[in-house]
Amino acid sequence: MPDDLQSLLPPQSPTPERPLLGITALIVEDSRFASEALRLLCLRSGARIRRADNLAHARKHLRVYRPNVVIIDLGLPDGSGAELIEELAQSSARVDVLLGMSGDTGAESLARAAGADGFIAKPIANLGEFQEIILSAMPATARPAGIYPVSNENISPDPIALQDDFVHISDLMTLNKGDDMLDYIAQFLAGIARTADDSELIDAASTLASHREQGLPFGSDVARITGLVHDRIDRARVV
Q1: What's the CA gap between 182 and 169, in Å, rounded?
Q2: Which candidate among 6, 82, 194, 195 keeps its CA 20 to 30 Å from the CA of 36?
């Protein structure tokens, strides 16, 4: 069922198999591949979902809808997700669960300092782990009653979503020449590479980020990333 139609259904009570029934989650994530993973985790858990791919879109959603759970990636194209976490944490109508998310585990302290109730380290694919993070962060009054079995099921996002991310990176580097977007490109690429378990891309993104931070030449890093991204796009076209 499409997400917008699902949101029109009346609230439902959680079940052992779907402990997040009745909960609406807003996912603030720019990667289509990571968003697809979270979409599957939410739907398998019974949660209704909405998605925003940047801070501006998330704020538009929040002016109209009040989700129970908000999961915010810290690296977004129009700013840090920590900004939105802090806004929502200080809001008088606070959401039940506010989670930060990043492929950089060192970002957990930043998310919690901004007011997050918990943190999701990307990549996340295990259904039981995902459910436990959300349920353990819920206030007692909002937490479903009863004991729920822990699922060991792992989800697999649609690889087409990964290709969308690669095309997005390619467009940024081609249309904007990458010069004003390199820091964002490095963190975005590192995130999707971890989710896809692509060690070669992880290394390339980390090297670019490190050289940028140290003020070292990075032209060869950009060329390397461009080649790797185009290679993965071409592989998918052949298949």
Answers
A1: 10
A2: 82
